Amino acid sequence: MVRPLSRCKYCNKPAEHFVPNLGTALCEEHFLAYFYKRVRRVLSRIKKGKRVLVGVSGGKDSIAALYALSALKEEFELEIGAVHIDLGFSIREFVKAFERACERTGAIKHLISLKEDYGFTVPELAEKVKAVCHACGVIRRYLLNKLAWEEGYDFVATGHNLDDMAYFAFNNLITHNISFLKTLDSVLPPFPELKLAGRIRPLFWLSDADSITYLRIMGAEYSSLKCPYHTETKQIFIKPLFNDIQRKWPQSTVNFVTSLRELARRSSMTEEREKGMRPCSICGYPSQLEVCSFCRLRKIMRS
Predict the structure, then answer these.
(1) DSSP type of residue 88
(2) How far apart are CA 65 and CA 55, in angstroms?
(3) pTM given for the model
(4) How far apart are CA 29 and CA 116, in angstroms?
(5) How far apart are CA 295 and CA 280, in angstroms?
(6) In contact, 76 and 39? CB cutoff 8 Å
(7) Residues in Cβ contact with 189 at an 8 Å cutoff, skipping those fewer than 6 apart
(8) Domains, the chain
(9) Which tens digit of pLDDT belongs to each residue from 3-40?
């Protein structure tokens, strides 16, 4: 929110929605135009008529991604599905937000239970492995891709936004890991021969603040609760740094991510995503090693 006396940059009407990436305020009409323009920028990179599976945790960004894709589904001839993964600690507030979003958007609803389908939960896994967040990410990515492949979806959509991409990139740069450049993009193509669905990030050019404003306008429910295993790590230092820079130079986050994407393209790293991948010898889904990370986790849980 901004001061009531602020005026929209485009029409001079009273503005209540501040846009960090523009460094200015907009009225509701022009905020929605701004928001959807940036989602269209992503969707224009895929052919019309695709089936998209949205991974929905119940938090603000995944809910915003589902609403935005649903709002533009006729324009891009999309068929939208949504999936919530029960990792064994599902909070009712998350599930409620997911179910309500599916009702309002008309998305095809999918539910996956890690316990029922694979015999273990993340809390049980946490007793055997130290890097719980990493393991949880492996599980979620695997299950999203597997469901997408089995149900005939072309792309998996996630709620990663511009701020997420900037923090992710900066964290990798200061830890001397440049392989992340292979996936720093709004759209990653599918590779059917590897049973690998494409990836799409509808909010790639939108900020955290944009998601919150959009959901407030849409009257959408979402949960602000954090995962019980959530740890801030370096993000507790990185996020305020980027916020301070963004306040002084509104285009800085966009420019940072755009520059890195251009660097990746010039170095041909964006063409290397599937290199070195092969079918897992156990499940047949993509892996960098003979046995994929998910199957190795299952082995740990059976031991």
Answers:
(1) S
(2) 9
(3) 0.93
(4) 45
(5) 8
(6) no
(7) 198
(8) 45-268 (3.40.50.620)
(9) 444 899 899 998 989 898 888 899 999 999 999 999 99
